């Protein structure tokens, strides 16, 4: 029935083409496809380069989370952590930005940054909360295609890309060469030490060191390095000398350097320097290594060279200019068809030590020596000291010797003419000297001293002296005046002069022929007796002074000075020996470990409600720090008292000696360190969350 | 079948009666009328482009659903540590934390319902072209349910929007929406449009044909 209407339906417009019939809505999925493909393509093209880094452990590295940083800027993320096939190492695959990856040279350094607390300070504290990250350091190159690297176990001390100079130091022991230890130049830290390593031969320790850029210009061939860690106390003729460079280097070790003579040349590349035990050794070592430009010479001695060894000094007027490099024998045919065994000593001479320029050519040095030889320069053997059989070679100008020439050949080593060495009989010399020492009026001197003491005692015991307690201050002044008095001070000097003269006599006896000896000996004997006379002339004056002093000495508590000195040392010992002081580092590190553990917990918990618990843990940790530092105020007080006593002692002692300065400095350092530790502990106690927020 | 059991004669349709209703104001016109006399709307007895639009929106929705599953939905930063979760990853994490109820809600809202919608709409669209013997009433009910339930898929998007606007505690905890949140919202919108584009009269027609052939 409705079929009748069907034709009317065809009034509708004619059927549109398929294209026109298409709905606009189709644009939506098409757009979605385009956008998706665009995003996918962008993602793919922006995808970083995959690099692999091999580590021995992957502690704290989480795939997808741990980042790679270069100069503290994130450059990539760890994608995967897996083992090497033999399970010996861990391979970390990380995707890093394309443009950065193209600058990676094959010696790029990567290491995992973790929190680290050491004598050199606290590092990586930020990783406590955020987790570890991998830091890289390299000198950017362009167009690199290297994609696999070996990671370092710890942060490299000497990072590539820093300006400065890399040198190598050689030492007998590495115990005082801590990795990261400071290198000081005039007390200022200018570089760092790397990790020490044993040489292939196993006989010494090598350590790389890096001197930062502006200061590396002070390193020349004339530079000597020495160990400054620890402290040294020397008892010498000038009194007690205490040497402490700084409290810092006392704790963490370190080395210092200085230029020991002028005329050093800039070093070219990695040079090996010897490390000396102390500054004196370094300064005296100027010629332990003869430079490359040393001139080799030979000396032929006819007599015995027993006592001469390789390394023995070659001296000129008592100044070291070279060393013996070897001794060998050779057979020389004499004119009578016989054969004579001769000893040929090889030496080398440093032209710089002769005052010649470092750039002086070998031929010029030889020409200089040839002229000197024609003017009477000869080599001879001398003993190094009257008590030692060791020999050294001395170059002496002996114009009276028969003429000789130094032949300079093209291929052979020039031979320096020698003279017959007049080596004195050691026993005879020693005997003679002892006799002379026996002859000195020591007994008499002793007798005088004893009687002086007796009179002092007598005076001190008399009633008169008891009546002077009020004059203590004046007495101290007088004491000081007396000590400073020229006469008093002159006595040791005179005595020393006399001994020096004696030594000179003995030396002269050694050196010269018998005829010359006598005159000099007489002269020196005169001088000695004159000196002794002069010295003893001073005695009446001294005795008078002393008596005067003794007259007022009743109230002077001479023992007090000694007592306070002893007490000071005891106090110092007590302070250093107290359990609090000893356990302080351990306690502190324990507390830090606790803090670390607390923070780790905090981090692992990851949720907000753990924060309170973590803060409580941090509080506990801080309490531990405070507990550990509890002894600090006491220690500070003790140190204060100690410094006070030391000051008093110095006032009493008068003269400002090196010992006083250094001791006081050390004590003040200790005092300041203890105060700082107390302060830190208090701050942490008050604001435990300062650890978290970093303030 | 249920229908054929329910009534003896097939119901008279407007099309069979030579009438056409305005889809906007509902006024009934003669079948040949091109524009609605009341509101001016173009009249068509059956929407010829309906299926095209259904498929187009469905495809777009499905394409948006792929990144919604691959990319992170939420980026949670807790004490400097960033953690990002995809839809399914979030569900698995909730299960691991023994929050089974929340896990079930999220799973239904973001996995079961969207996929169910894709399946349902595809099925309805396909059977318009190739009718099967399932009840027309059932199919109608299915379309209604799909249209009704579509908006509830937005629950995920709301959760993300709420979290990222409320949980901003500086460096302690902060929540950022991921790309997947936008993708998911688009997917839901597209599938809703797809369901709305479906001209239900086309289902009706299959019944007519069905009954005619039967």
Automatic annotation (TrEMBL), chain A:
Tell me the keywords, alphabetical order. Answer: Cell inner membrane, Cell membrane, Membrane, Transmembrane, Transmembrane helix
Q: Which InterPro entries match?
A: Mce/MlaD, PqiA-PqiB_transport
Q: Which domain of life is it from?
A: Bacteria
Q: Does the keyword Cell membrane apply?
A: yes
Task: Provide the Gene Ontology terms for cellular component.
Answer: plasma membrane
Instruction: Name residues in a coiled coil.
Output: none
Q: Where does it localize?
A: Cell inner membrane
Looking up Pfam families in the UniProt record yields:
MlaD (PF02470)
Q: Which residues cross the membrane?
A: 21-41
Please list the residue ranges annotated as the Mce/MlaD domain. 48-134, 301-350
**The protein's name:** Paraquat-inducible protein B
| PANTHER family associated with the record | INTERMEMBRANE TRANSPORT PROTEIN PQIB-RELATED, INTERMEMBRANE TRANSPORT PROTEIN YEBT
């Amino acid at each position: 029935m409705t079929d009748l209407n069907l034709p009317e339906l065809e009034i509708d417009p004619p059927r549109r083409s398929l294209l026109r019939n298409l709905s606009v809505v189709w644009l939506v999925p098409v757009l979605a496809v385009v956008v998706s493909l665009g995003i996918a393509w962008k993602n793919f093209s922006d995808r970083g380069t995959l690099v692999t880094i091999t580590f021995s452990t992957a502690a704290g590295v989480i795939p997808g989370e741990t980042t790679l940083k270069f100069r503290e800027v994130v450059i990539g993320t760890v994608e995967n952590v897996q083992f090497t096939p033999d399970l010996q190492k861990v391979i970390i695959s990380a995707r890093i930005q394309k443009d950065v990856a193209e600058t990676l040279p094959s010696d790029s350094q990567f290491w995992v940054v973790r929190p680290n607390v050491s004598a050199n300070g606290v590092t990586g504290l930020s990783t406590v909360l955020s987790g570890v990250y991998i830091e890289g350091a390299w000198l950017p190159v362009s167009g690199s295609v290297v994609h696999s690297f070996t990671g370092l176990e710890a942060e490299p001390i000497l990072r590539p890309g820093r300006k400065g100079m890399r040198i190598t130091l050689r030492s007998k022991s590495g115990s005082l060469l801590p990795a990261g230890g400071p290198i000081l130049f005039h007390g200022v830290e200018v570089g760092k030490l790397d990790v020490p390593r044993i040489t292939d031969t196993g006989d010494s320790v090598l350590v790389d060191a890096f001197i930062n850029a502006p200061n590396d210009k002070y390193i020349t061939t004339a530079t000597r390095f020495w160990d400054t860690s620890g402290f040294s106390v020397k008892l010498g003729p000038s009194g007690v000398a205490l040497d402490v460079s700084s409290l810092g280097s006392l704790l963490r070790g370190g080395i210092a350097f200085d230029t020991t003579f002028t005329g050093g040349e800039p070093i070219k590349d990695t040079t090996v320097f010897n490390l000396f035990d102390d500054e004196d050794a370094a300064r005296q070592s100027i010629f332990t290594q003869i430079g490359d430009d040393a001139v080799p010479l030979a000396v032929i001695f006819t007599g015995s060279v027993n006592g001469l060894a390789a390394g023995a000094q070659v001296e000129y007027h008592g100044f070291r200019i070279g060393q013996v490099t070897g001794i060998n024998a050779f057979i020389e045919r004499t004119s009578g068809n016989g054969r004579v065994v001769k000893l040929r000593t090889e030496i080398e001479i440093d032209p710089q030590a002769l005052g010649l320029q470092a750039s002086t050519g070998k031929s010029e040095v030889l020409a200089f020596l040839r002229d000197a030889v024609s003017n009477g320069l000869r080599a001879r053997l001398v003993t190094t000291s009257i008590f030692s059989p060791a020999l050294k070679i001395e170059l002496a100008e002996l114009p009276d010797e028969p003429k000789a020439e130094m032949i300079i050949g093209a291929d052979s080593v020039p031979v320096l003419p020698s003279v017959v060495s007049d080596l004195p009989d050691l026993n005879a010399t020693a005997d003679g000297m002892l006799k002379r020492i026996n002859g000195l009026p020591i007994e008499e001197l002793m007798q005088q001293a004893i009687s002086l003491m007796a009179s002092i005692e007598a005076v001190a015991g008399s009633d008169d002296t008891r009546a002077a307690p009020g004059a203590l201050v004046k007495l101290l002044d007088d004491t000081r005046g007396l000590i400073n008095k020229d006469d008093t001070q002159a006595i040791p000097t005179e005595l020393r002069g006399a001994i020096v003269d004696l030594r000179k006599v003995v030396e002269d006896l050694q050196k010269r022929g018998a005829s010359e000896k006598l005159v000099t000996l007489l002269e020196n004997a005169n001088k000695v007796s004159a000196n002794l006379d002069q010295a003893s002339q001073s005695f009446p004056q001294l005795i008078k002074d002393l008596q005067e002093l003794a007259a007022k000495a009743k109230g002077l508590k001479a023992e007090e000075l000694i007592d306070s000195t002893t007490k000071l040392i005891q106090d110092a010992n007590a302070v250093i020996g107290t359990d609090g002081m000893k356990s302080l580092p351990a306690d502190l590190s324990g507390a830090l470990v606790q803090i670390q553990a607390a923070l780790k917990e905090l981090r692992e918990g990851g949720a907000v409600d753990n924060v309170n618990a973590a803060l409580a843990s941090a509080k506990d940790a801080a309490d531990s720090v405070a507990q550990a530092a509890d002894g600090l105020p006491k220690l500070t007080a003790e140190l204060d008292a100690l410094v006070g006593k030391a000051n008093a002692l110095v006032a009493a002692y008068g003269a400002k000696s090196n010992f006083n300065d250094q001791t006081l400095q050390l004590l003040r350092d200790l005092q300041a360190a203890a105060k700082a530790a107390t302060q830190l502990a208090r701050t942490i106690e008050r604001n435990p969350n300062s650890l978290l927020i970093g303030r | 079948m249920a229908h054929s059991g329910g009534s003896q004669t097939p119901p008279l349709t407007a099309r069979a009666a030579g009438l056409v209703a305005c889809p906007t104001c509902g006024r009934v016109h003669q079948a040949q009328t091109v524009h609605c006399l009341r509101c001016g709307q173009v009249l068509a007895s059956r929407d010829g482009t309906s299926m095209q639009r259904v498929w187009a929106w469905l495809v777009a929705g499905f394409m948006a659903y792929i990144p919604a599953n691959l990319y992170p939905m939420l980026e949670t930063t807790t004490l400097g540590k960033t953690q990002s979760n995809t839809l399914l990853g979030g569900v698995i994490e909730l299960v691991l934390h023994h929050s089974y109820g929340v896990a079930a809600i999220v799973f239904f809202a973001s996995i079961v319902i969207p996929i169910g919608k894709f399946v349902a709409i595809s099925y309805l669209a396909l059977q318009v072209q190739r009718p099967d013997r399932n009840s027309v009433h059932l199919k109608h009910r299915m379309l209604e349910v799909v249209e009704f339930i579509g908006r509830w898929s937005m629950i995920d998007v709301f959760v993300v929007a709420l979290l990222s606007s409320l949980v901003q505690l500086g460096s302690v905890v902060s929540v950022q929406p991921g790309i997947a949140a936008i993708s998911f919202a688009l997917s839901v919108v597209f599938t809703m449009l797809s369901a709305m584009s479906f001209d239900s009269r086309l289902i009706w027609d299959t019944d007519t044909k069905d009954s005619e052939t039967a």
